[in-house]
Amino acid sequence: MSATTTTQVTPATKRAIFGAAGLAFCGILVETSMNVTFPTLMRQFSTSLNAVQWVTTAYLLAVAATMVVAAFTQNRFKWRTIINIGGSAFVIGGLLCAISPSLWVLLLGRIIQAIGTGFALPLVFAQIMRQVPFTAQGRFTGTAGMLIALAPSLGPTYGGLVTQLLTWRLIFWITLPFGLLAWFITAKNIHQPQQPTVQRFPLMQFILIVLTLIMMTWAFNSIGTTGFSLVNFWVPLMVALLALWGFFKLAATGDQPLINVAIFHNRAFSKALAIYFLIQFIQIGLTFLLPNFTQLALGKDAMVSGLMLLAGSLTSAILSPLTGKWMDRAGIQKPARLGGILLILATLGFALVATHLSIPIIVGLFVVYQMGFSCLFNNTLTYGLQQLPPHQLGDGNATFNTLQQYSGSLGTAIMAALLATGSELHPHSSRFIQTTAGTQLALWLSLVIIVVTALIAWSLKPTKSAN
Questions:
Q1: Residues lower than pLDDT 50 in the chain
Q2: How does pLDDT run across 37-69, given as a tens digit for each residue?
Q3: pTM here?
Q4: Domain segments of the chain as ranges
Q5: How far is CA 290 from CA 35, 277, 309, 357, 373, in A?
Q6: Measuring CA to CA, which residue among 266, 455, 436 is closest to residue 354?
Q7: What architecture does CATH give domain 11-202+256-458?
């Protein structure tokens, strides 16, 4: 029965939705928890920052690459099979990370665990859009999305506490039983509204989109070390753009596209997708930038720099379900416009006081940012998917989830590059001046992106279900 005609969500469906959200939460939590462990990993494995940063970058790439095939897997395989693969990958990958004797074993474990997150996360929203009434989709997306949106902000706090007080390996040991429980709950309760259909896997399209993701990440990751060089920036960027063009051409003309690119012809969907991508870009970028500024410029430890973001994370957790209900009642316009205003106020505040940032100022402005984030992030996902007919929901869901993870990868890479630029601008100055200069550049860029995001949000129009 479709989401538009269902009058009640069964308890089993609720358990399956929030079980999958719990598994995705555990995966994303360890994703950003490792950001504050880089100095520790560099010492333990006797390696460089460039090598250690792949602990996060490889994870994000693997998640994004897995999510690209979400629409195909959800149509081709039983949902219970998908969640069983995702749960198994989360557990096996987590165990490898927890016992890893070298950086390469840690990277392997991260990639395996990322595949688990990449399978679990799209199933959360696939269930909501197919098995929840249209009038309640905002509330369900807000509540389930609260867990997923909370995880990247809570990650540095969790990782900092565990690393400072115990050992970074416990980041994985602690999350394993919770992920295992969430996996079992989902597998027991998940219900698939339609039977799987036999399809041929579009391998060349998959290769091209993965090549795009890898080359784009390589290009932006290299800015902080080699600048805008021909070999390390421009060549990978051009390869990425050519691969992306090739993917769109094959997907548009092939009989079995990996993602139905016709969804991008829907302007309302594309606007929602742009907002979602840009907000997440800044969100993950800030969770990298602010803790690093606190440690490098203010001299605080990993625990303080992680705890600093906790108030904002809790604000997001409380407000996300409420703003979802607000959208169900009032439509997208009011929460979107308020969210845009709050995001501008927060990023403008960060940019204006970039040279005088302190812990209390960061805490306060990050809370305001998370208030705006809560009004927009999950609501634009719901709104965007509501623009699509049922046969395109899988493609839209896969696109949203892929870009959510990949925007975090780009956000981290670009913020890191701008942070490193401070050293180039002031080569003979103190670390405080260098870090502050780089942070200031990153925060002004954030303001420009958020202003663009708010303008797009202001243009959103009310919609009726496309189902």
A1: 1-7, 465-467
A2: 777 887 888 876 667 767 777 887 888 888 888
A3: 0.77
A4: 11-202+256-458
A5: 11, 20, 9, 10, 17
A6: 436
A7: Up-down Bundle (1.20)
